[in-house]
Amino acid sequence: MNQPVKRKSPFRGVGLLVITTILVYVLNKPMGGLPAIGGLLDPVSGCLANAEPVNKNFSADLKFPVKQNATVWFDDRMVPHIHAANDHDLYFLEGYIHASFRLWQMDMETRAAAGRVSEVVGEKALNFDRRQRRKGMIYAAENSLRVMEADPRTKLIGDAYTEGINSYISSLCYRDYPLEYKLMGFAPEKWTNLKSALLLKYMADDLTGGTDDIALTYLRDVLPKEEFELLYPKRISGATPAIPAGTVFDKPSLAIPAAPPDSIAFPHFKATDFGEKREDGKGSNNWAISGARTASGAPILCNDPHLGLNLPSLWYEVQMQTPAMNVYGVSLPGTPGVVIGFNDSLSWGFTNNYRDVKDFYLIKPVADNKNRYWFAGKQLDFNKRVEHILVKGKPEIIDTIDYTIHGPVTYEAQNAKDGSLRKPLAMCWMGHRGTNEMLAIYLMNKAKSYPEFVDAIMNFQCPAQNMVYADRQGNIAMWGQGQFVNQWKDQGRYVMDGSDSATLWGQLIPMRENPHVLNPGQGYLCSANQATTDSSYPYNYTNSGWVDFRAWRINELLKNMPKATINDMFRMQNDTHSLLAETVLPVMLKYSKDLKGDNIDVLKKWDYNLESESKAAVIFQLWWKSLYRNVWQGKFGNVPDDLLPLPERTMQLMLNDTLARVLYGDKAGVLSYSDYFQALVVSSYNEVFDSSEKLKTPWYKVKNTTVTHLTKIAAFSYDHLKTGGWGNTINAMKGDHGPSWRMVVQMGKEIEAYGVYPGGQSGNPGSKYYADFLEKWAEGKYNKLEFLPNSDKQSDSAVKYVWNVHG
Amino acid sequence: MKFLLSVILIALLAMGAEHFLPWWSVAVVSFLVSVLISQKPGRAFLSGFCGIGIFWLITALRHDVANDHILSTRMAALFHLPNYGLFIGVTVLIGGLVGGLSAWAGALMRSRA
Lengths: 807, 113
Prior knowledge:
A: 30 strands; B: 5 helices; 0% strand
């Protein structure tokens, strides 16, 4: 008989049980911005499950719903080389592989495109989501989806690609989710063809998103006509267009429409919206050199598209083979095919074309009926599109968007933020139309000759791109490609009156009449976001952001390079020579003879290269920035940078006294122009270098090139990368934008190709392949691209892992 | 002996449970084991702490060493911890605490019965 001496309180056990349960509950619940800590730390299924062994053997035998056996070879950089017997199997495998290495990124990018970010991050993304919806992103993707699915080729590859992604997703349990899902507390959802379409529209929006229309509408009103044309020329003098001057264009098949009178076409603003910022020197470079001007005798093609620098990288390297195709390059996870690259016959690269494909219309609502607006003297009903925005932890938001004959009303009085336009503007965008870029990419990948390549790109409608081309037969070519409207002069340069039918978009220009050139006499071609053509091109067109420094520099280098080598190309892509500095610094120094000191001495000895370690680069960049701002601030008052004349134009006006005349016209006579200007140059210098601490720091630290994880988590990102250059140098390395993929391909008997992008093949921050190219990229070095022969056996020593795929 | 048996049993059963169930199954396992094996509450806590702690430590180290600490270093930075060791330490501590408290509660429940 063991009688306990002391009876314990029965509630002690229950109390502790409750406490323990609460602890577990708390650890299992996301709080504030933090994920559920218990699940995240659990080493079995939490974040540590994403710690990929550094010597992981990726080789596997896999069973998939493929029609025939296939093989995937991974090389030592984890680039997959997919060999399949047919298109279905090939694109299935590409989808499966994209998902295996980049699933979370594909998910987030398509969510961003569709305005579905709040669904996973909560209210803080609501404004972003609302903007995406108002731009009509889902509407655009749905239109493209219809076109894609109507074509049997894109239906087949789109379906196979989606099937591959879903096959991967359905194999996952929580443990296998990419780390970011665990951190953000959501789960992958099924892929659809719509998502692939959304991703393509995401790129279209990124590349045709900016607009000068609203700003120019305002400026045109406030500046005298002559001065407006002087400061904002449609085509800068001395431009070196992508399609070289002197190219003879075919007679246009369409009549050029006459412009309606200004009073009908364009409304006037006082209050203004300058929401969309122009980034100085955002863009890309591509060029091709004919065999006559290379040391090897084979053409060379180079491309470096400048895009946002993020991790996981936008690009994913891949080689894809079927009996009918052997292509290598970079793909966009989320959409099938190779976007930029080369196949066994030809190579191609893209830069943004910037020909205007997005216009704004001022909508005149019917006074006492908010369901109607005026058009051509009649009242029309808005098409209402109801957007449901799911918000994590909050009730769903319903936004009704008015669609007009021009497009969705993107800006609206009630949504206007402080200082933005308080008038309803509808957006008319080529991207809203159903377009099939997926087909263009598919056909480009398979093309065997120049005519086949041209046929392929006739399907590439938006975003408009300058497409450079070089093939093994020795041809080089450039196309300013996209779907454009036959505009009357200045149509769409400013916001248009949406109530008049004369402003409507007219006929589409047949795409074969787009500016292009094959094997020009000069032996090389280059595009770097400058004007596409000279003024002899028969159709009217306006632009939304041409810049010229890089184009001038590339043309100058190529012109003086009679025997180009691959090493020359590496040097060119990493060139940090500032033409701006070379041109304006002597002028600035001339006007500031009174300034003395180390800084000035350093500048006088400078070679105008924005090298990573350069201190002169810092002095110049800061001085110029201050001067540029001061020059225009006096003229326009305190306006955002994106309203100011381009640095290119500012520089040109500065070389004689035009600038001073524009700035001080009415004060002339009291002092000379140069006296005024001298004071401005000196005070701009003194503003920056009175108390600047940045002087001791090298250029790379000042500009701080960062490659940021899409979540912005610093622990997954890299900053202060040691890089030179700026947006206006060929090596367009800015803070968060830069060369997202550098490629050099020599199209000889043997194709020799090099490339590098700022990231790595794996999207997993716990993988050694997450950012393993980053250092090379920052240093301007390249990976050799292993272009394997089209065969079902490989003996290349670079092959490291093999997937044997069975049906 | 009972202590060692508890620790081993908790570790092994938790390993089995986590194969099928979410992470909080370690709490259930610790609780049940100490309901079944009678121990003083203090020793029960320790056996739960050690059982889950050791299981999580071994699992974490297995992942982390093979990974050259790439992920744990990033996670440590994310949580503002000075190094990956501390991140693993926090992991083990949380697992141990959950295991220990559950086992303690189990022991008290048993002494009620």
